[in-house]
Amino acid sequence: VNYWLIKSEPHEFSFAHLLKRPNQTEPWTGVRNYQARNFIRDGMKLGDRVLFYHSSTAVPAIVGIAEVASESYPDPIQFDKKSKYYDAGSKKENPRWMAVDVRAVEKLKTLVTLETLKQEPALKTMRLVQRGNRLSVMPVSQDDFQKILELSGSIILL
DNA sequence: GCCAACGTTGGC
DNA sequence: GCCAACGTTGGC
Q: From the CA of A11, how many Å to the C1' of C1?
């Protein structure tokens, strides 16, 4: 099992939206960064645990636990000419962008805010709090994941 | 809305 | 292959 963090702008798609989806599952499409693509394509496996982070909001924070609910597959909207994520340079026989299904597991009792993460000495090396980080999909160490669960009041233990 | 920190693009 | 210009992310 691997551990990840994914970002979403809550006014576009929040953890509450995910909880309302059928089977609490949503295709995680539209990732258009090669490093993030590589994490999805080469790293994400069914059952991996995911921290769900709200960005570009008044209080940026980890708000929920999710899980990877599929193996990775070609992101269908890269072939959709009407989508803003359409990529004319990507061919079906050699897709450029990948997606994965994400399922909500648990809403956190206590949000773990970016401010909290920055103040926690044990999380100093976390990618999310590093300078200039902009990846929307990133790996999280098991220790950091565990620490964040402790900060969140989650009933889920590793 | 500002702007730092990246990532991407395209001329050369 | 270099790098300036441009676009995007995301905290503040």
A: 41
Buried b (16+ CB within 10 A) or exposed e, A63-78: bbbbbbbbebebbebb
Q: Is the CB of A134 under 7 A from strand B?
A: yes
DSSP symbol at A94: B
What are the φ and ψ backbone dihedral angles of A113, each rounded to 5 degrees? Answer: -75, 160
User: Residue A135 class from Cβ within 10 Å (0-12 exposed, 13-18 middle, 19+ buried)?
Assistant: middle
A54-99 per-position pLDDT tens digit: 999 999 999 999 999 999 999 999 999 899 999 988 988 899 999 9
